[in-house]
Amino acid sequence: MNDEKFMARAIELAQEGRGFTSPNPVVGAVVVKDDKVISEAYHEKFGELHAEALALKKAGPAARDATLYVTLEPCSHQGKTPPCTEAIIQAGIQKVFIGTRDPNPLVNGKGVTQLLEAGLDVFTGLLETECLELNRGFFKHIRSKRPWVTLKLALSTDGYIADSQGKSQWITGQEAREFVHQQRKQYDAIMVGVGTAMKDDPSLLPKDTSGYIPNRIIIDEALTIPYRLKVVNDDYRNKTIVVASSHEKEKKREELQKRKLKVVQTEADDFGWVNLDKALEQLAKEGITSIYCEGGGQLAGSLVQAGLVDELQIFIAPKILGEGIFGFSGFMKTLDKAIQLEWDEPRKLGPDILLIGRLK
Amino acid sequence: MNDEKFMARAIELAQEGRGFTSPNPVVGAVVVKDDKVISEAYHEKFGELHAEALALKKAGPAARDATLYVTLEPCSHQGKTPPCTEAIIQAGIQKVFIGTRDPNPLVNGKGVTQLLEAGLDVFTGLLETECLELNRGFFKHIRSKRPWVTLKLALSTDGYIADSQGKSQWITGQEAREFVHQQRKQYDAIMVGVGTAMKDDPSLLPKDTSGYIPNRIIIDEALTIPYRLKVVNDDYRNKTIVVASSHEKEKKREELQKRKLKVVQTEADDFGWVNLDKALEQLAKEGITSIYCEGGGQLAGSLVQAGLVDELQIFIAPKILGEGIFGFSGFMKTLDKAIQLEWDEPRKLGPDILLIGRLK
């Protein structure tokens, strides 16, 4: 019971680093002696000390014979910082609880082995589900060289993301919008199609801009993004990435880059749209481990059809429009070939219903 | 606590009569002495003894000085059966707990008054919400001369009731279909539009046909229903009501009537469809107090737009179709004029999500 409590605290600490560590994972660590926490830390920023190294540094000589709780397997290789296994052994730690192994082939299992060989007691898999969840972007990034993609859509009860005039603000209520603002801080980037960018001119920023600001990704095959948009003009425009598949428009590309935006050139698919799988691969190379996609219908349709969505967040608003803009465009399936999903337990968020699920 | 327990039992008993009492309400009654049930009964069938009269008959002389729990205010007028208040007073009942007053102007409050005047202790409103819920069709029927209408639709996550080929079997899973079969037994009639009747040729029967069989209502403005359909041909065709607004087609009407179907002639609305409000009024006169509408999109759209839906049951299936048949057809609202709903807590039923709510 106490072991779980200390690991839960380490998970809580890890969350503090959210947004600042990518493409590294978020990690939390707690040093405990005689059932008392003597120090705690989290990985604060990419390139800086790892959580366990920082916690040990804070503990100083008190760490001797103590127990370490760390959400992710300690690294065993020299990276931007020295190997954490060394720091643990040198600090005289006696027992190590690890949330989950590191899928990074440079580490996977090696960290555990080094600690065992040095005579420490090592327990792996404490609150493993929670520790995997904590870094699902990082894990997917390492394993598939693609970012984790969550697709969020707010639909009317009859399935529309906007009314027939294109108006979508606000389909959902205050609570759902708050939830989305909280979510934005959990991802390396927020993504929309250029159609949505043009129609709504969203800033795609979290409400509170005092902390971490995610990247903004605009999928814009033909590089038609207007200069007037917020994502092109605001103070955070250096965090805007435009993904294009057209290799023309040299001048537009240069102009965007001059304005500090990043332009990622990728391949087109058979229909002339951006090849989203390739685009995700390139975005992963840019260090993006997780994406929160907020539509529109064309991009949502393409993503689910290509099987590129890891999580769906669908808000069902208590409204019926009769007609409007489709939530998932660009394809047509018969019932026996429908795209299959699976839902978790649903819940109410204010007047709206939140469905969280995944492709099956 | 015990009072609630006995009333809850009376509610449970009342449910046994479901389907057989309309346009009367379902009613349950329990006679209790020294904290022990000495008899119980429910209103079994329209025209037969009321629940409390039957319970007292069963109890016989033992009812003297006992307490009666009854879900609905006892009647005080001579109807098909003698007034229940008289039976209660003559049986020597001392105390009466009543779930809710009877909205029927022939009874409302008069039953309670008679019992009080006879010197009995009377408590009204025990588990009132549950007792109102028990007879929501009856209450609506009495108050508004219209049946209670529940609209059930099974939608794909993107809002379609069928794929683009019109196929809708089965959008939802086994559990949702079981739920619908259970629901069918709770209503006086199951209703669909003629389009759905033609496309799916549904029997609209509960799975288990050994007990109560609800009426089947087909909204069929131009009386185009084909003779080949199950609802026209099966053993229960005398429980099929076709609602038409066309006053032509005398021969078709006669032919249907010859086959034992009922044809209700009503008015057309401005667009030539059945005027649904008028239709409901006429169906109420036929003794229909509650309707379970199962689509299609045109009828669903017309009902919600006209504000004629008392409860919505929307299943969200874990499927995306991209294109298909709309769940709510025939109108187009801007976001600020959308039809507003309100949802209860959602729940999962097998792989599907069940949303229960109402128009706001």
Quick structural gist:
Chain A has helices at residues 2-16, 51-59, 84-91, 110-117, 128-134, 136-144, 174-184, 194-200, 230-233, 250-258, 276-285, 297-305; strands at 28-33, 36-42, 67-72, 95-100, 121-124, 148-156, 160-163, 189-193, 215-219, 240-244, 262-265, 290-293, 311-317, 319-320, 324-326, 339-343, 347-349, 352-359.
Task: Describe the fold and architecture.
- Two copies of one chain form a homodimer.
- With 360 residues, chain A is an alpha/beta fold.
- Chain A contains twelve helices and 18 strands.
- In chain A, strands 6, 8, 9, 10, 11, 12, 13, 16, 17 and 18 form a ten-stranded mixed beta sheet that branches.
- In chain A, strand 8, helix 8 and strand 9 form a beta-alpha-beta unit.
- Chain A is globular, with a radius of gyration of 22 Å.
- The mean pLDDT of chain A is 95.
- Chains A and B meet through strand 7, helix 12, strand 14, strand 16 and strand 18 of A and strand 7, helix 12, strand 14, strand 16 and strand 18 of B.
Q: Given the structure, what is the number of helices of chain A?
A: 12
Protein chain pair with the most extensive contact, residues per chain: A-B, 53 and 53 residues
For the report, how would you describe the main beta sheet of chain A? 10 strands, mixed
Radius of gyration of chain A: 22 Å
User: How much beta of chain A, percentage-wise?
Assistant: 25-35%
Give the N-to-C terminal Cα separation of chain A. 35 Å
Average pLDDT of chain A: 95
Helix and strand element order of chain A: HEEHEHEHEHHEEHEHEHEHEHEHEEEEEE
Shape of chain A: globular
What assembly state would you assign to the polypeptide chains in this entry? homodimer
Q: Helical content of chain A, roughly?
A: 25-40%
How many strands of chain A? 18
Unreliably modeled segments of chain A: none
